[in-house]
Amino acid sequence: MQLPDLLSCSSQDLDHILSCFVIECRRADGSPYPPKTLYQLCAAILRFMRDNEIDLNFLDGKDMRFRNFRKTLDARMKQLATEGIGVTIRQADPISPEMENALWEGGHLGMKTSVALTNTIFFYNCKLFGLRGLDEHRTLVTEQFKLDKISDKMFITFYGRTSKNFAGGLNQRNLTAKEVKHDCGPDGPRNLFHVYQTYIDMVGPGSMYRRPLAGEGLKYSKQVMGVNKLGKIIKDMCSGAGFHGNFSNHSGKRTCATNLFQSGIEEQLVMSRTGHRSTAGRNYKRPSQEQLSAVSMALNQPKLGSEENECAAEFEANNSKLPKLMVDPMRTPMINITNCNVHIFDAGNK
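Given the sequence above, the corresponding structure tokens read:
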């Protein structure tokens, strides 16, 4: 079958060809693509045409020349969703504080070996500074980190450069790169200030990730760590610790957002760490089981007899683990929820 030359097609022919494409295209094994992937394939075709100086935006809802194509794409995506294709998205799992502690105790994090030290630097670059799975790590250099001791406090400052959310081009000339100053807290055997100081002193200026050498002690080659090895650091670390779940390098950034969310940190401050400039950062947050249980308890059916006291006690136990809402006795706090106002009154103030 001869493929049509999209670059020489008229708008009418292109509308027909793309409509047929979204209905008929399949994976190599014959299974259909998920709705989101189908849309991304169409976006890739649009990008290809623009790269070849063909200015036909068939995804523009105002361009009536491609109305049939958009209706076909919309119907096909709805059909796939109805069939349950692509409705469940597999996301990277965050690393819980219990898992993180187990990684330290098991020697997968720390400074006992060169591999463990590399794991530690990579993981905390994700968790502390919200770096992405691989692309932001590949170009990372040690000069982007500054270690300071001010009085009895220790700080690690990260100076970001270009990233997915900051390309530094014409349209982002009024934006600035990420800059995060992290307080390492009280001194101790796991204090990250000493971990970063040890690592940076060993690898020296230049690329952040060098190939760790086997054997006793901390030794690194001058050779930069390969992309394949860098791309599965967290996966290998969690697999070595015996963790079950979908762990990848993206788990580091998800751990950052999840820990801040579960600690009740304001969304604006969460975004300052993750680097998001929109609500897309919400996709990285995972509620704790206590938070989910508190939501379920609030929606459960009324209890009778002795069950009521037991239910109230369980709800109070779960609710006590949630971040507290600071209530001003002179004002009525409000939370906006989709065109509704929910008033919360402090029972201790009348």
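Strands lie at 145-150, 153-159, 179-183, 210-212, 220-224, 334-337, 340-343. Try to locate this feature in the token string yourself.
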